[in-house]
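mind reviewing this fold:
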Amino acid sequence: MGLFTRRSQDTTTATATGAVAALAVDPALAALTGDYVIDAAHSSIGFTVRHAMVTNVRGSFGDHEGALHLDGSDPSRSTAVIDVRIASVDTGIADRDGHLRGPDFFDAEAFPLMTFRSTGASRLGGDAYRISGDLTIKDVTRPLSIDLEFSGSATDVYGNERVGFEGSAEILRSDWGLTWNAALEAGGVMVSDKVKLTFDISAVKQA
């Protein structure tokens, strides 16, 4: 079932295409139309980065919030907004987390939020999609594309309508001004420039 589809830009067939699309709308998909709030208690936003050239360090941001607007009849109109509180970074080691919050990295006191604002979406095939938008870290805003899989919809035991997504993206942290590093005696650096971001989202439909 597709959530994000590309609207036809062929003006010579726009009317015919629109008529066919209207007839082909999946009722189950159309029923998902509405506003959703990300359930932070059942969602995670994380990252993985190479450390000392030999292993991966994983972490997450425990304090985040966001909203989705899904349009099941015209999924290209769907949008996403996510705010992440930098001070909530957690890698399991307090000293490392403190370093990440400090001016060498995120400078959480001066720049408390990391934000994402979607600008577009496209279907890759099946339940796979790509969401494009603007990612802001510190005082730098750059485009980011997130590959997503729509994992389905359900009504939970409390009667809430939920939708789920899993996604990932890779960035170069230096593109957002996160350039701190330390050289290793044997060559290479302490922290890789490439960072993998992961998103596991459960969102609840609003009345």
